[in-house]
Amino acid sequence: MKYGFRILVIFFASFLLFILFYLATAFICSHIQVNESTTKSGIVSIYVKSNGVHTDLVVPVKWKNMDWSTIFPFKNTKGQDSTSTLLALGWGDKGFYLNTPTWGDLTFSTACKAMFGLSTSALHTTYLDTIEVSRTCKKISMTQHEYDLLVRYINRTISTKKGSSIFIPTNAVYGKNDAFYEANGSYHFFSTCNTWTNGALKHSNKKACFWTPFDTGILNQYP
Predict the structure, then answer these.
(1) If 208 and its partner were Cys, which of 7, 15, 187, 201 is the partner (CB 3.0–4.6 Å)?
(2) For residue 64, how far is the Cα from the chain centroid?
C-alpha cells in the first residue's frame, strides 16, 4: 500500500515538474524573436487571428497566381458562397477538431490523444468576407517573395491524394463557410496550432518566436 502511494506521489510530482518546465520553456522561447530585420511594407496583407487560445492564418482567397478556392473548393462548405475574399486556415489535432465543438465536449481520451501525438491532424478552413484588426487580430504586410514562402509552407501541410486535398465530410463544422481537410504532421505538447502559425511566419521571414505553443507569443510580436 505504501509502495503504491509512493509511486503515485512520484508520478504527480514528475508531472507537475514537467508542466512547470514546459511553461518556463514556453515563456522564455516566446520572448526570443527571430527574423528581427524583416520588411515592414509589402504588397499583400495577411492576418493572424486568435480566439483567445487558437490562432488562424488569414490569407487572400486569390492573389496573383494563387487561388486557394481551387484547393479548398467553396462547394465543400454548407454556404457555398464563392464571393468570399479571405480564407482563415488553422492546423490542429483532427480528433479535437471533429469531436470537440465546445469545451464542454472535451473528453479525457481526446485530450490525451491530442497532447501526446496519438491522433492525426487536420486543417480547418473558413471563408470570410471581412476582418477587423484588433488586439487579437494582427495585420501583417508581405512582399511577394514572403507570401510565396508562406504558400509553400501551407501547401506542405496539406495532405493530398492524387494531387488534390482530402476533404473530411463531417457535421462538426462551426458555420456555413468552413470545412475540414486532412493534414500532415502530428499535434502534441510541443507542436500545437500556434506552433504551426508561428512556423508559418518564421518560414516566411516575418517576425516570429523562437518557439511558442500559445497564441500570446505570436500576437506580442506585432503590437
Answers:
(1) 201
(2) 24
